[in-house]
Design goal:
This protein is of the alpha/beta class. The protein has two domains: 220 residues, Rossmann fold (3-Layer(aba) Sandwich), CATH 3.40.50; 67 residues, Alpha-Beta Plaits, CATH 3.30.70. Helices cover 33% and strands 29% of the residues. The strands form three sheets. It has a six-stranded mixed beta sheet with strand order 6-7-8-3-9-10, with helices on both faces. Strands 2-1-4-5 form a four-stranded antiparallel beta sheet. Strands 12-13-11-14 form a four-stranded antiparallel beta sheet, with no helix packed on it. Helix 3 packs parallel to helix 5. The chain starts with a strand and ends with a helix. The model has no long low-confidence stretch (mean pLDDT 87).
Amino acid sequence: MTAIVDVTDLRKVYDGGFEALKGVTLQIREGEILALLGPNGAGKTTLISTICGITRATSGRVSVGGYDNVTEFRKARSLIGLVPQEIALEPFETVWNTVSLTRGLYGRGRDDAYLEKVLRQLSLWDKKDARTMELSGGMKRRVLIAKALSHAPRVLFLDEPTAGVDVDLRRDMWNIVADLKADGVTIILTTHYIEEAEAIADRVAVIRKGEILLVEEKDTLMRRMAQKELRIELQAPLSTLPESVARDNLRLVEDGSALVYTYDTTGERTGITRLLASLSEAGIALKDLSTTQSSLEDIFVGLVKEDAA
């Protein structure tokens, strides 16, 4: 698949010497949804701002749709829409004028039908004549999204778009994302709601301290790194594990009333059959069994901790 955003050896050093990006290289495929995950201060917003041309890189290169975002910045930026974290709107302007002006700033001709479609998608049509200062926080967030979509971008950056918003907006946002993806729009998402990334992303990129730790297909990553846990509830609690059943990946929990066994889902043998046989031979009676699998959030936290170690 063709890369619509190509980032090569991108570095950003601020006055005072802080290095926010440390040679980031990243190719974002046309039409995909990429979840960019990382802890606070990892460099997510700096990377997005640099790709969008808001921040000037210290070194390295970014191209969008084949256009260099420095030497051909108008063409590159015309392909990009950005929904920022912070809400910044002209308080005395109407919703309609706000969105129309943004479209004009990108050099796009008037298209009332398209803007009406965007506003209706975001449940803003009945607010089109309201001044932005009169809107709730959730409605203002919807206006930011409408502004980002006003010029029909081919690449859309969503920087924590659902942080602190209501459930209805979050649902509407992901419905719109699904429609945009169906239209071939490339979407780069940062979010603290990792379950959202798990639900909609095609690939996952993890960034920490200005460096990309990995970029991988979400499903492949979860198959490669996910673990399952077998929870075994006991008829009677144990104070210690008998030597015959002790294993590195088996532990007592809840004051000895349950066992948790961790195993690799990709292995040829899980070891569960042997474990259950050992428990039976040791005279340990079982009450119930259940399994859980690692989520993308578990994997993300594990990656960040591993890198920090």
